[in-house]
Amino acid sequence: MPFDDLRQWIAALDRAGQLKRIQTEADPILEIAEIADRVSKSRDAKGVQGGPALLFQNLKGHPGSQVLINQFGSDARMKLALGVNSFDEIAGRIRMFMDVKSPQGFLDKLKMLPLLTEAGKFFPRTVPTGPCKEVIQRDNFSLLDFPILQCWPNDAGRFITLPCVTTRDPRSGKRNLGMYRMQVYDERTTGMHWQRQKVAAEHARERMRAAVEGKSAAVDIMARSSGGSVIPEGSRPSGKMEVAVAIGTEPAVTFSAIVPAPPEIEEYLIAGFLRGAPVDLVKCETVDLEVPAASEIVLEGYVNLDELRIEGPFGDHTGFYSLDDLYPVFHVTCVTHRKDPIYATTIVGKPPQEDAYMGKAVERIFLPLMKLSIPELVDINLPIEGVFHNLMIVSIKKSYPGQARKVMNAIWSLGQAMFTKCIVVVDEDVDVQDIGDVTLKVCNHIDPERDIQFTLGPVDSLDHASRLPNYGSKMGIDATRKWASEGFARPWPDEIVMDSKTKALVDSKWKMLAKELGIE
C-alpha cells in the first residue's frame, strides 16, 4: 500500500525498527549533521551500513519542532519506501509497459485493458484542499522559524536540502519536479541552485527568450546566467517565474524529484507509478502551480529573470565544497504547512550518505530505460565512492568491433549521464557489481594507449577539477576482450577456472572441510 504522507511513512519506519527518536537536545547548526554523518557511516550487529532514520524531537532554538533525516539511508529503507522487496520488481514493471505492442486485433485490445486500467491509476489528481493548508501564512512568516540545517563549517549558511521544487514549462505547460538546494539568505529569500543543465533552468531560459528581443541577446544572457558572470544592466530580461517548493513529502514523491525522467514524462506521474496510486495535488495560494496535498511545508514564490546572487559554498556529495557562484533568487510570497510540521532534510558529504542509497535505487530501477537506447547493455554499476557522475562501470554483449566505444558515446548522449567523467566497459561475463572482479579484468585487459579515449564536453557543475566550470574532459576505457577485427593479432588467454567435476567433488566435502578449518 502507498504511504499517504510523511507521517504514515515515519510510522512504517517505526514499526520496522528503522527509526530512532532522539530526545537529547541537538542544534540544527552543524550538530545534527555531525550526528547524522556518524550514523550514516555506522554498521549494525550484522555489519549492515547506514544506521537508522533519525527523528530529532528536542531542537535547540526551535522548541516543539521535529527534524527527520536519514530516512532513505539504507538499502532496506529504500525498498520499504517504494514498497518492494527488490528494485527488480519495479524494473520489471517498467519493462512490461515498454514491451506493449500495438494491438493487432480485438483480442489483443482486450488483453491490453488491464494494463491500461492500471496505467490510469498513475496520473496525479487535483483535490480541493489538503493537510498542507492547515496553516496559511501570507504575511508575518519567516523561513528562520523552521529548523533548517547548516551542515558543514564552511557552508555559506543554512540550506534547504530536500526540497521538491515545482516549475512549469512556459511552452507546453507541463510541470517539472526537481530537487535543488536552497541557501537561506533571510526570512523570505533563498538561493535556487538549479544548474544550467537542469529542467527548471531551461524553463527560466525559455522565459528569458520570450522576454528579450533578438536571439543573440537571449543567448548571451542565458550563457551568463548561473555561469559566474554578471548580466549587463542594459540587457537584463524582466519578468518573474513562479516556483513552488514542497518539503516533507511522502517517499515516492521525494524520490521522483531526483529520478532522471524522460523530459516528456511528469515526475508526479512517475511517483504515481512507483506508489501504484495517484498523487493528490492542491492549488497554491499565490502562484499558479500545484503541490502535493499532504506536504508538511510549502513555500510559494517566484524568481526574477534579471536577478542573480552569490550562492554557496556548500559541502556537497562529492566530499568537497562546491564553490560559490551566481544563481537565481527565490522570493517567498506565502508559506503553508501542517500544524506542527515535521521538517524533512538530508546531509550530503563524503559517501556513504543517504543520497547514495537513493542513487543506487535509481541505477537499478532505470536500467531498462537505458537498455531501450543501448540494447547491448547487460548491467551497470555506479559505485557509491564515485559519487555517481564520476564513474560508471558497464557490461555489454559485444557483437562487433569498436562496440565498447559506441556504448561510451551513447551513454554520454543520455540526459544526466552526459556528466559521467569515467566510463569503463567490460564483457558480459564480468560482474560489474563485484569491484574486485572488475579491477582484475580491467587491469589485465587494457593496453592504456590503445584502449583509453578522451572526449571534451559538458561536465557536472560540481566538478572542481575541470578546466572550466561546466566544461571539461571525460574518459572511456574499453576493457573488453580484443578481437582480430579490432587489430589485435595475438592470442587472448583463457581465464583460470577450476573444472566442474573437481568443483562438485569439493562442494560435496565442503561442510566437513569448513568445520575442520574453522571457517564458514
Describe the model.
It is a single chain. This protein is an alpha+beta fold and 520 residues long. The chain has a domain at 374-486: UbiD C-terminal domain-like, CATH 3.40.1670.10. The chain contains 15 helices and 23 strands. It has helices spanning 6-15, 31-40, 75-82, 87-98, 106-119, 199-211, 215-224, 251-256, 267-275, 354-365, 367-373, 403-411, 435-445, 448-451, 500-517; strands at 19-22, 53-56, 66-69, 125-126, 135-137, 159-160, 164-168, 175-178, 182-183, 189-191, 240-247, 280-283, 290-292, 297-311, 314-315, 321-322, 325-337, 342-344, 377-381, 391-396, 422-427, 452-458, 471-478. Strands 5, 7, 8, 10, 11, 14 and 17 form a seven-stranded antiparallel sheet that branches. Strand 7 (164-168) and strand 8 (175-178) form a beta hairpin. Helix 4 (87-98) runs parallel beside helix 11 and helix 6 (199-211) runs antiparallel to helix 7 (215-224). The chain starts with 5 loop residues before the first helix and ends with a helix.
Ordered list of secondary-structure elements with their pairings:
Elements lengths: L5 H10 L3 E4 L8 H10 L12 E4 L9 E4 L5 H8 L4 H12 L7 H14 L5 E2 L8 E3 L21 E2 L3 E5 L6 E4 L3 E2 L5 E3 L7 H13 L3 H10 L15 E8 L3 H6 L10 H9 L4 E4 L6 E3 L4 E15 L2 E2 L5 E2 L2 E13 L4 E3 L9 H12 L1 H7 L3 E5 L9 E6 L6 H9 L10 E6 L7 H11 L2 H4 E7 L12 E8 L21 H18 L3
Parallel strand pairs: 1-2, 3-18, 4-12, 20-21, 21-23
Antiparallel strand pairs: 2-3, 5-17, 6-9, 7-8, 7-11, 10-17, 11-14, 12-13, 14-17, 15-16, 19-20, 22-23
Helix pairs in contact: 4-11, 6-7
